[in-house]
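Customer ticket, subject: "Can you confirm the structure for 2-dehydropantoate 2-reductase?"

Message body: Hello, I'm evaluating your service for our small team and ran a test protein. I'd like someone to confirm that this is what the system normally returns, since I don't have a reference to compare against.
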Amino acid sequence: MKIAIIGGGSVGLLLAARLCLAGSQVQVITRTRQQADELTQYGLLLRSLQGEQKRIHIQAVSMEGALPEADLYVLAVKQTSLTEVLPVLRKLAPSARILAVQNGMGHDDQLKEVLALNQIYLGVHTEGARRHSFTEVEHTGKGIWQLGSIVGQDQESLILDPIIEAFLSMGEVAGLDIMYVLDIHMVMWRKLMANAVINPLTTLFEIPNGALLDSPDTVSLMKRLFVEAKEVASLHGQKIDESTWQEIVQICRNTSRNYSSMLQDLLNYRPLEIEAINGYIVKRGRELNIATPQQEAVYKATLLKAGLMAQRG
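Agent reply: Thanks for trying us out. I re-ran your input and got the following:
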């Protein structure tokens, strides 16, 4: 089976490296020709959790032309880059499948505008990764991968798509903690809760994930953000309880050395995914007439900080 990973950021490169090491046929599709050329010429350097370094030969092309033929396209670009990719996705063969692994919410609605529902699968992961250059990625924290159909399924009528079933097997061979879930939207909401707590605070304070747990003040801020997001999620039919809070704390521990993707974007002067995370919660709160002052405060503060950084840069 041919896999094409759209996006040469930290997550896309980490997934490509691990699948390649396990013998899968993988191609990386980058936004720039420069990154594609460098990956093809120099290969991809993976720094493992154990500190080992491996140089991996990998195929790469840029998005400037038509997408190469593949059975599964893993969409690993940022929410902020999604509009650039959507026109190209319209041209995919009906037999192709898309696995979208964006942070935040809202990308599912955009994908439904350009693809058939049976083509779209959504993924959520808690893996920690950091891209050091176009051709170097570091695995900074082990997490889990969960994926499911955009339309949702029940156990009695579940018939797993052969392409998705093959990808699950490949992921297991590559050492991923990967599973198929019947209600991926529930998982997405739980991941949104984590992103809405961890990402803006690590970005505002410029600290790694684990440092949030070092002070009772930051833990208190985390909890207040969690409570507001929980209220919004609950009115969207999501069952969020204390176990979700414990999951967020555990993510901070498991990825203690990792800089959140939002902080990495800030430090590299890239657009932030704040609109699809805290902005999404604030927007949904207003629609439901729920006050979210803490969420709105960090949302506005993060936007302000990004604007100031851009001016100085």
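A couple of notes from the result: The mean pLDDT is 94. Residues 186-311 form a domain with the N-(1-d-carboxylethyl)-l-norvaline Dehydrogenase; domain 2 fold (CATH 1.10.1040.10). Feel free to reply with more questions.
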